[in-house]
Amino acid sequence: MPKSRIRKKADFTPPPEKTATAIKLGSRGWVAPLMLAFFIVGLAWIVLFYVTQGSLPVDALGNWNIVVGFGFIAGGFVVSTQWK
């Protein structure tokens, strides 16, 4: 039986080194502070409404103060879609 040919293995070449890329906030640096501000204002609005038993922040709105607070929180979520 004939002897099989021996294949030569190629020399090992290591993969190229990966270079770290810097994360640039660019013009979107305003997104995170504004998003957090909306969340905090909305939460504070609702908490203030419950703690003062409806007399603050705006007495004339009555229970609509809850909707305003959730509106601020929803605004925070809308702004968060711009974060890259």
Task: Give structural notes.
With 84 residues, this protein is mostly helical. It has helices spanning 31-51, 64-80. Helix 1 (31-51) runs antiparallel to helix 2. The chain is rod-shaped and about 100 Å long.
Describe the structure concisely for a colleague.
The protein is mainly alpha-helical and 84 residues long.
Question: Helices and strands in order, then pairings?
Answer:
Layout: H1 31-51, H2 64-80
Helix pairs in contact: 1-2
Tell me roughly what share of residues is in helical segments. 40-55%
Structural class: mainly alpha
Count of DSSP-assigned helices: 2
Q: Would you tell me the overall average pLDDT?
A: 87
Form type: rod-shaped
Strand residue content: under 5%
What is the number of strand segments? Answer: 0
Task: Outline the low-pLDDT stretches.
Answer: none
Q: Mind describing the biggest β-sheet? A: none
Q: Give the termini distance in whole angstroms.
A: 66 Å
What are the main properties of this structure?
84 residues; mainly alpha; rod-shaped; 2 helices
